[in-house]
């Protein structure tokens, strides 16, 4: 199960890093064409959330430094995908809805696993000698 969670986390991180990065660096004209009335600033905010979430899926768990941030990042990405699903329904982009639902469900699975049975223990604190 732990290997499955790591694989899903890595794949989600790649997807969210790419999607978020394109929203951050994409031109305003491209974002406006993609959004059909959704403000460009909202795309930029979503892009930042996706990039930070992608980093949060991997780095805290891999380094074991504040690993409790990993399920929080996965939860945040789940909420981001709920918002993306609502936005896609609002603009009539029904073809994209299954994709956002899938990524949301996978993010929810990672959050559930990292909060529960596949939680990562923090790195032990190093103790300094007193002499």
TrEMBL record:
The keyword Membrane applies. It is found in: Membrane. It is a multi-pass membrane protein. Pfam families: DoxX_2. The chain crosses the membrane at residues 42-62, 74-95. Keywords: Membrane, Transmembrane, Transmembrane helix. InterPro entries: DoxX. This is DoxX family protein. The lineage of its organism: Bacteria, Bacillati, Actinomycetota, Actinomycetes, Kitasatosporales.
